Amino acid sequence: MSLATDTTDQLTLYKRIRADIENRILTGEWPPGHRIPFEHELVARYGCSRMTVNKALSELAQADLIERRRRAGSFVRRPQHQSAVLKIADMRAEITALGRAYGYELIGRKLRAATAADRDRLGVKKAAKVVAITCRHSADNVPFAVEDRLIDLASVPDAATADFSREPPGSWLLHHVPWTEAEHTISAIVADDRTAEALDIAVGAPCLVIDRYTWRSARTITAVRLLYPGDSHRLVARFKGG
Amino acid sequence: MSLATDTTDQLTLYKRIRADIENRILTGEWPPGHRIPFEHELVARYGCSRMTVNKALSELAQADLIERRRRAGSFVRRPQHQSAVLKIADMRAEITALGRAYGYELIGRKLRAATAADRDRLGVKKAAKVVAITCRHSADNVPFAVEDRLIDLASVPDAATADFSREPPGSWLLHHVPWTEAEHTISAIVADDRTAEALDIAVGAPCLVIDRYTWRSARTITAVRLLYPGDSHRLVARFKGG
DNA sequence: TTGACTTATATGTCTAGACATATAATCGTG
DNA sequence: CACGATTATATGTCTAGACATATAAGTCAA
Q1: How far apart are CA B125 and CA B115, in angstroms?
Q2: Is the CB of A52 under 7 A from strand D?
């Protein structure tokens, strides 16, 4: 089997080298732990300069496919933990992406000094002002999810005056506070009276719960709880890895 | 404000350049759409060769923080969709990572020709042989999740003879069929009699359901349904992005 | 056998060039 | 004005070197 003739693509050299090695790893020809040829060997094999193979190997290392160790060489990494990329677009995008009509309804909005429960939810210690928002998202006029959100005004003062009667707080935040980090907790509950009514489902029906806690460089921004009807299978995540 | 004096870290030059630009983007100083200085400008500013700033910019482009356009320049990208990295380790790792004792119990294992339902679950059309496995994972002797799995023997013939009485099929597969792709569907149900008994919870209690469908280069491998007690908040996902 | 020192070596970073290539901007023409 | 041809330019890739640095492996003494 030749090295690089299976795909006669118009690839640049370093991309071909990278693809060659990637294929060997993905097909299992070079299993985890296997030592990749040294850079100087690849240089000889492909007849190019070391910078070129270095670029290919560096990208493979960045993708966690190989591990590079000084003096020792480069090695195929063992499959990492399966990690799924869960796309949680903002609700409007999520629903319109499904080809359904997006509907939004503000149920409640309150500006208040943080209660003990608020502080706990946001993970802050000192007293602060917060906005509490409850709203509902619907798809084709059917309830899709209810949202219960807390925004820390110390981090996002503009949220005090923002008009959430038309624009969902998630979309608003996405445009005003980019590049955040977040932590998600996914769980299931059975609907209580209030939830059942909001989602138009039966009391005792299963609900999917996503708690998302968002911050930005150690500053809390918002905590949100999303409730979905449990039978809807909407959190689809694809992942690559092994 | 100086360019690179805030962090006097022992970083290599290209990493410092990358960090400088990244900071400017993350702080909002350079908002989406902003044009990054041209390579030759950065060369002048940092007093280095073009390959060095090119490496910094290439990595930022790989990380989707900037977009590079020939002749036009490099531009700060608008925040992508929030995407969460959902780590779904194999169950043993997941439980031991929590510092709890892992327990495994095979409940049933059947080798059979695929039924219509099996084919549907696996997403294959032609008849095939499958292994159906039901098992339970426990943490500190408390039921943690029940697993209901189907393995396509056409793709993984070894699974026919593998001993799943000691080793969970997930771990086994992870070691025998690396580098797969998968799709997850997350939903919620209420426990029926069988589920309630298996998880040692009340009938009607909420359960979190993860359906994972795994393939490898267009070949179906396995379909698994995991049932967790709904109150356990174990699917924690952190994400970065905006 | 163990620990400290030395050496060899593979990777990490960097340079000062080069040519390729896509494309924004300009210029000319109908 | 519209449209096609030309040009300028920023990025993309590549080279043939260089020195730095971490570390596996070998060496030697206690």
Answers
A1: 11
A2: yes
Question: Hey, what amino acid is at A200?
Answer: D
pLDDT tens-digit series, residues A139-173 = 899 998 999 999 999 888 999 999 999 999 988 88
Residue B95: phi and psi, rounded to 5, are -80, -45
One-character DSSP codes across B16-30: HHHHHHHHHHHTTSS
Q: Smallest Cα–Cα separation from B106: which of B135, B130, B86?
A: B135
Residues from chain A contacting residue B50 (CB–CB below 8 Å): none
Contacts of B185 in chain A (CB under 8 A): 233, 235-236
**Residues of chain B (13-52) having a beta carbon less than 7 angstroms from strand C:** 13-15, 47-52
Q: How far apart are the first and last CA of chain A?
A: 26
* Interface contact flag, B88 A79, Cβ < 8 Å: no
What ipTM was reported for this prediction? 0.67
Strand order in the sheet with A66-69: A35-36, A73-76, A66-69
Distance CA A183, CA B136 (A): 28
pLDDT per residue as tens digits for the range B126-160: 878 999 999 999 989 999 899 999 999 988 899 99
- The answer for residues whose C-beta is within 8 angstroms of residue A11's C-beta and 6 or more apart is A19
What is the spatial distance, in angstroms and rounded to an integer, between the CA atom of A137 and the C1' atom of D29? 77
Asked if B17 contacts B42 with a C-beta cutoff of 8 angstroms, the reply is yes
Q: To 10 degrees, the CA torsion angle through B3, B9, B12, B15?
A: -60
Instruction: Say yes or no: Cβ of A10 under 7 A from any atom of strand C.
Output: no
Distance from CA of B77 to the nearest CA of A (A): 11
Catalogue all structural domains in chain B, each as residue range(s) with its CATH number. 13-76 (1.10.10.10), 85-238 (3.40.1410.10)
Q: Where would I find the H helices in chain B?
A: 13-26, 39-46, 50-62, 91-97, 116-122, 169-176, 193-199
